[in-house]
Amino acid sequence: MQRSALRLVQAMASPSPARRLADRCPGRMMSTSEVRAGMPRVTLYTGTDCSLCDVVKETLEETKSQAGFAVEYYNIRDDSLPDVQRWRRAYQYDIPVVHLNGKGQ
Question: Distance (Å, rounded) from C-alpha 34 to C-alpha 71?
Answer without folding.
Answer: 10
